[in-house]
Amino acid sequence: MPKYPYDRPRFGSLEFNGPGEAVRGILAGTCVVGIVRSFIDRDEAGMLADAILKEELDPRTGGGLGGTLGPSLFDHRQNHERYFEKCCAPDDKYKRALLSVSALDIRGKIRSLLESEKYDLPLKALMHNNQSSEYFRAFIFPTDVENPVGIHEDFTSVRSLRSRGLNMAAPNMIISHNLYLRNPDGLGILRVYNKKFTKNEKVDLDRKYNINVSVNGYPYPRKELEAVVPSIMLEVSVRAGDYVVFRADYPHEVVNNGERQKGWRVSWNGFFTYVKGALVHWT
Ligand SMILES: O=C(O)CCC(=O)C(=O)O
């Protein structure tokens, strides 16, 4: 059994044949980002994106609220208590939307994706309030803004898991997985920075910039990351139908570098981490 986490992955990004292989690559310290091109067909991805957009949820802009379908840590300003309460709210708008979209069975798709893949580790869905956390979660981002997702690190999730008594074997390893349903070509580039700040460094950043990076992972000051040489570790262009897994404990953002156009980028998103010999997943 290999030891986790590997803090110095050997490669930036690599392409894999399937999600299981990509997750294994990341766990084994092979790379920071694992890409599965055309995991689902573009037309199917487009249908799912349309179904999500039909719900008219607010898009997520500038790191604010909205734009997600299904309970999510991000929806609740990284407030994990509210997140777990909200998961069980009976007539919540997001839950209604979730049910209507699941007619198209994206949850089933994600479940079968997880269950049919070979991860070489038992999979464990995170439970909360007696419900599995396999909620559908969608992101809707505008494509006519420069920076739809600001620079951040997804470690708050780990704090939530810890507060629920899960003993984190690799608290520094958070893996985000995304299935892109709509992404205009050339836009929505995932950028991962080549620097992991220590807890003390994050506290210093908070003091210096009056921010909350050490508390909730947001927002990393661009200036500090650009001072790191080489600053950006990699940029990944994604297309509808692609599936991408990456180390979300590295600072990362989404940028629209190409010609901006009015429209939406829609994706499904979830997380994995390694806990006591199992791969725990949640959204
Ligand atoms: O949409 C993306 O490409 C990345 C979203 C993100 O920030 C994450 O999955 O943590």
Describe the structure.
This protein has 283 residues and is an alpha+beta fold. It has a single domain (11-282), classed as q2cbj1_9rhob like domain (Jelly Rolls), CATH 2.60.120.620. The protein is built from nine helices and 15 strands. It has helices at residues 19-27, 42-54, 80-86, 93-102, 106-116, 156-163, 199-209, 213-216, 222-226, and strands at 11-15, 31-36, 68-69, 123-125, 127-128, 131-132, 138-142, 149-152, 175-182, 189-193, 232-236, 243-247, 252-255, 264-275, 278-282. It is globular and about 45 Å long. Bound molecules: 2-oxoglutaric acid (AKG). 2-oxoglutaric acid (AKG) binds next to strand 9, strand 13 and strand 14.
